[in-house]
Write a structure and sequence with these properties.
Largest sheet: 9 strands, antiparallel
Number of helices: 9
Shape: elongated
CATH superfamily of the largest domain: Regulatory factor, effector binding domain
Number of strands: 9
Radius of gyration: 22 Å
Distance between the termini: 17 Å
CATH topology of the largest domain: Multidrug-efflux Transporter 1 Regulator Bmrr, Chain A
Structural class: alpha+beta
Number of domains: 2
Order of helices and strands: HHHHHHEEHHEEEEHEEE
């Protein structure tokens, strides 16, 4: 087992430990991200890939779990419990508590109640790599793209719903074919481009775009992707499941044991022509990397 894999897992567990120690206070995402030596943006992204939920949703579930313990085992007032776990008002707390536990905070006082418990996450090293991953390392020059831009955030997992909706809206309005018509440079495909924010925070820009030297049509934006070294992974399978699964494996399996670290900047997805629902559909993931 490579030492960098062990360090990476220990860092993720240290981050969870920091979160657990501060569930009844302020949680600074920067402190959690520092445990694994990454930006807030990258930490939230990797956490979501690994666990299947956003960081903010994990924290919400843990706080509501502990709130139920407090109400059962103490005489704390509901208003005090709501403040302890970061809610602005008892009403907001009661609404969240009832949605999570299927009972009001007042009803949680009794015995023989059936609560929903969400235990702390623990990251472990496991046997992986049964399925091969095909990739290449390339140094790419700066690239100009033109397309439609959405500013979204990882807070509350909003990007997980807003990005598919963005694609669907562009498809419905006939914008995808317009973007495809702009392609005249490599990579020859429709691009999905995530731009890491300069401050490393949770909010980021996402483009559906084309690599092109043509002028940006009215209503579209242009962006210059800086020169960078990429690990480029080939993906075969129907969208969106195939590329989502490959993205999880890239960050969970390949990156911790590769001898590379996430380089930050811009992540790119390349979608080829063809039937996206086909088991033979081809796409690519470009991950910016630097050698350790």
């Amino acid at each position: 087992m490579r030492r960098d894999e062990v360090d990476w897992v220990e860092g993720m567990n240290d981050a969870v430990g920091y979160i657990e120690e501060n569930l009844d206070g302020e949680i600074d995402y920067r402190c959690a991200a520092m445990c694994v030596g990454s930006s807030v943006y990258h930490f939230q992204r990797v956490f979501s890939y690994m666990t299947g939920i956003s960081l903010s949703e994990y924290i919400r579930r843990r706080r509501l779990t502990l709130a139920a313990f407090d109400l059962q085992s103490s005489r704390m007032k509901v208003v005090d419990v709501s403040v302890k776990y970061g809610y602005d008002s008892p009403t907001a707390f009661s609404r969240a508590f009832q949605a999570f536990h299927s009972m009001t905070p007042s009803e949680a006082r009794g015995t023989s109640k059936l609560f929903t418990a969400y235990p702390p996450i623990t990251f472990q090293i496991s046997i992986k790599g049964v399925t091969a991953m095909t990739y290449r390392i390339e140094q790419r020059e700066k690239l100009r793209i033109v397309g439609l831009k959405l500013t979204t955030t990882q807070e509350g997992g909003k990007n997980l719903s807003e990005l598919p909706a963005f694609w669907e809206e562009c498809r419905r309005l006939g914008q995808l074919s317009k973007i495809v018509g702009l392609i005249n440079r490599e990579p020859f495909g429709l691009l999905g481009v995530c731009v890491e924010p300069p401050d490393g925070g949770p909010e980021f820009d996402y483009f559906i775009a084309a690599a092109t030297d043509m002028p940006a049509p009215e209503g579209m934006s242009e962006y210059i992707i800086p020169a960078s070294q990429y690990a480029i992974f080939e993906c075969t399978g129907p969208m969106p499941d195939a590329i989502q699964d490959l993205s999880r494996r890239t960050y969970n399996e390949w990156l911790p044991s590769s001898g590379y670290v996430y380089g930050g900047g811009v992540d790119i997805e390349v979608y080829s022509d063809g039937d996206m629902s086909s088991k033979d559909y081809k796409s690519e993931i470009w991950v910016p990397v630097t050698k350790k």
